[in-house]
Amino acid sequence: QVQLVESGGGLVQTGGSLRLSCAASGRTFSMAAMGWFRQAPGKEREFVAAIVWRSGSTYVADSVKGRFGISRDIAKNTVYLQMNGLKPEDTAVYYCATDLRGRYSGTYYYTTGYDSWGQGTQVTVSS
What we know:
It is built from no helices and eleven strands. By secondary structure, it is mostly beta strands. It starts with a strand and ends with a strand. It has strands spanning 2-7, 10-13, 18-26, 33-39, 46-52, 58-60, 68-73, 78-83, 92-99, 116-117, 121-126.
């Protein structure tokens, strides 16, 4: 099992920036990829970004491309989500997750492509 803890959320004005962190512990050697999802009130959880743990290859949702970036620090077992140019529609609870099975990259866009999830961190963007 892998435990994930997100941090870095908060309240920010439109156009501002935040960097979310997700620290992993436990059987981290089994992590194949990590992803970020978000869920706004009354909406389904949606894909934001993913990164392949060893290669560093990244996948970013079109809705945030050019504003958000994902990176990882292997030594710290931590994945980051840098969010710039924030908009009110980015307001959501942000979750990180990890794929422990080495799935095909096409699955990274779906919640079913991950095995462990963090508890989430709230991001609120005021207009």
